[in-house]
Amino acid sequence: MKTHLFTLSALLLTTSLSAVTAQAATTKNPLSVHVLNLQTGSPTSGIEVELDQKQNNNWVKLATGKTDSNGRISALFPEDKTASAGSYRVVFKTGDYYKMSNQKTFFPEIPVEFNMESNGEHYHIPLLLSPFGYSTYRGN
Questions:
Q1: 3-class state of residue 1 by DSSP
Q2: 3-state secondary structure 79-128
Q3: Residues 111-126 as b or e (16 or more Cβ within 10 Å = b)
Q4: What would the mean pLDDT of 26-43 be, rounded to a whole number?
């Protein structure tokens, strides 16, 4: 009887650990961004993006990244931090991108401020970009 209880306990523990591991593996980073070039209709790679959090009326840098060949950063929030409710911003450093493309731009940086809830939702911020204008919204 003791052997059967031990085996059952071990099986339940293994199953519980597998479920926790599977949940952690499927947990997405809470923040992603995407940049599309409206002038060319294509993804915009190589744009540096900074993530800041507002703390005591000051912006504190949490992370930076560069858009990949699809114009995306799929995991911008730092892996070692837990997302908490509050005010955040992503700053798209578009000036360097246009300088490398030998184009003028009116917006060397595009800050996008947003509020994050601590409910485990994923936040996606697309940027539709042209040299003299931009648009953004909450994506999915």
A1: coil
A2: CCCCCCCEEEEEEEEHHHHHHHCCCCCCCCCEEEEEEECCCCCCEEEEEE
A3: ebeeebeeeeeebbbb
A4: 89
